């Protein structure tokens, strides 16, 4: 850490430290420095944060202070965001908390809101990585190593590798990303260089055969990243068979990317106003199955991607059990902005009304007409109304292919958020199983096409 000095108008020295952290997820380093800076009385505006570079001694500081567990937990997740300003943002929260501000109780504080959005996005990406990564068994010195490749939107490699290592203590694995790679070797985790791009599983396997051993030998122990409680959920078993041949990078359709950008300026109904952003559909070009839900939820509204919140996580699990690879389907909603009502500081979901579904149908129609999917999976009554143009009783029409007037095929099922709302555990398990059965029927239709 290099320290610059300036002078205040009264002639006192002002230290302006330049902090160089070891890496993008140097939680321990950031925490130690933040503590020293606060105790030395160095204001957030005076500090410059970066990753890598030379370090120097910080100003002397003594004493101690403590922070609330919830603030530490928030910072420990938000620091994994791919956001260059996060170190300074989190330091300013620590600074203000030390000054006695009750930060987390103020729902309207913009810095707290930003940190929460970053943490939310990190959690969603950590889950997404664990859901989407496919492990290939490869040979490594006569034993089996599970090899996965992924492009994370945030710096979630370390936390996920720690979690996977803990859950599968007897498995050797390597997770390769463009930022770097994590290897479980022997009892420990090692981190080393990664791989920018790979076309498919065969190319990944060939790359590993050429370079894997050398990469393992060059890898080193890394810093440890805290595993927040809500990151601590079961990862996919490493040796579950991959869902058929997988092309690792599935590009989105440029026409639909363009439509998604156009939708950011949509004012066709009032829902754009209170929402954070439009949440357009996503999926690879040429997807043959279109899954339609109702509208983005609270987390989707913040993150800007469909089905990444709790309902999306239920859907991911059920898709996996049904043998459907989420990376091959297109997922969207009948309504592209989050409709909610405030209760205290919480945003509670509100069902969109018919006029809003009709207003937003222009975007769903673009997605539908451009994709021309072989099958449209309509999850819940709003999705069914949007596509079928009439009220649909889910219990009466679910679970079978329905031929539409235009020759396309629809399949009605429940929305995964319905499963989250069932209070009775046994009924919830039954309904979840019925949802998986519907997805298995969908898989059979996909395979037969
Ligand atoms: S909900 Fe749909 S129609 Fe309404 S403003 Fe958003 S994008 Fe436009």
UniProtKB/TrEMBL annotation:
GO biological process terms, alphabetically, are:
DNA repair
Q: Which residue intervals define the domain Uracil-DNA glycosylase-like in the entry?
A: 280-440
**Keyword 4Fe-4S belongs to the record:** yes
Q: For this UniProt entry, which residues form the secretion signal?
A: none
**Pfam families per the record?**
DUF4130, UDG
Arranged from A to Z, the UniProt key words for this protein are:
4Fe-4S, DNA damage, DNA repair, Hydrolase, Iron, Iron-sulfur, Metal-binding
Annotated region described as Disordered, given as residue ranges = 217-239
Q: SUPFAM superfamilies attached here?
A: Uracil-DNA glycosylase-like
Superkingdom in the source lineage: Bacteria
Identify a single GO molecular function assigned to this protein: deaminated base DNA N-glycosylase activity
Per the record, the similarity remark reads: Belongs to the uracil-DNA glycosylase (UDG) superfamily. Type 4 (UDGa) family.
> Which PANTHER family does this entry report, sorted A to Z?
TYPE-4 URACIL-DNA GLYCOSYLASE, TYPE-5 URACIL-DNA GLYCOSYLASE
Name the record gives this protein:
Type-4 uracil-DNA glycosylase
Q: Which organism is it from?
A: Rhodopila globiformis
Classification from the root reads: Bacteria, Pseudomonadati, Pseudomonadota, Alphaproteobacteria, Acetobacterales
């Amino acid at each position: 850490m290099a320290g610059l000095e300036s002078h205040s108008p009264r002639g006192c020295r002002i230290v302006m430290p330049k902090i160089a952290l070891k890496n993008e997820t140097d939680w321990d380093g950031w925490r130690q420095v933040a503590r020293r800076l606060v105790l030395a009385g160095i204001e957030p505006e005076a500090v410059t944060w970066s990753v890598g570079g030379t370090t120097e001694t910080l100003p002397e500081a003594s004493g101690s202070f403590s922070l609330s567990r919830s603030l530490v937990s928030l910072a420990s997740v938000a620091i994994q965001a791919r956001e260059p300003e996060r170190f300074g943002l989190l330091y300013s929260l620590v600074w203000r908390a030390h000054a006695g501000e009750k930060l987390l109780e103020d729902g309207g504080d913009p810095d707290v809101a930003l940190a929460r959005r970053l943490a939310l996005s990190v959690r969603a990406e950590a889950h997404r990585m664990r859901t989407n990564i496919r492990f290939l068994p490869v040979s490594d010195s006569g034993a089996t190593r599970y090899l996965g490749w992924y492009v994370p939107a945030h710096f979630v490699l370390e936390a996920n590798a720690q979690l996977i290592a803990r859950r599968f203590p007897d498995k050797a694995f390597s997770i390769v990303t463009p930022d770097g790679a994590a290897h479980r070797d022997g009892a420990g985790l090692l981190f080393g260089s990664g791989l920018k791009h790979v076309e498919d599983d065969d190319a990944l396997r060939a790359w590993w055969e050429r370079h894997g051993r050398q990469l393992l030998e060059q890898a080193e122990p890394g810093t440890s990243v805290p595993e927040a409680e809500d990151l601590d959920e079961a990862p996919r078993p490493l040796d579950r068979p991959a869902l058929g041949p997988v092309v690792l990078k599935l590009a989105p359709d440029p026409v639909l990317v363009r439509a998604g950008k156009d939708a950011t300026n949509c004012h066709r109904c009032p829902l754009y106003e209170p929402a954070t952003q439009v949440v357009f559909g996503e999926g690879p070009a040429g997807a043959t199955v279109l899954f339609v839900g109702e509208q983005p939820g609270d987390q989707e509204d913040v993150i800007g991607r469909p089905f990444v919140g709790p309902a999306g996580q239920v859907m991911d699990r059920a898709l996996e059990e049904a043998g459907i690879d989420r990376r091959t389907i297109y997922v969207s909603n009948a309504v592209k902005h989050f409709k909610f009502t405030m209760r205290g500081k919480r945003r509670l979901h509100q069902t969109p009304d018919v006029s809003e579904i009709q207003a937003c149908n222009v975007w769903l129609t673009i997605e539908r007409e451009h994709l021309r999917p072989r099958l449209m999976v309509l999850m819940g009554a709003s999705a069914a109304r949007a596509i079928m143009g009439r009220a649909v009783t889910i219990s009466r029409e679910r679970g079978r292919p329905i031929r539409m007037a235009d020759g396309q095929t629809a399949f009605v099922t429940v929305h995964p958020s319905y499963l989250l709302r069932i209070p009775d555990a046994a009924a919830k398990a039954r309904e979840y199983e019925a949802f998986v059965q519907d997805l298995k029927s969908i898989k059979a239709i996909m395979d037969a096409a």
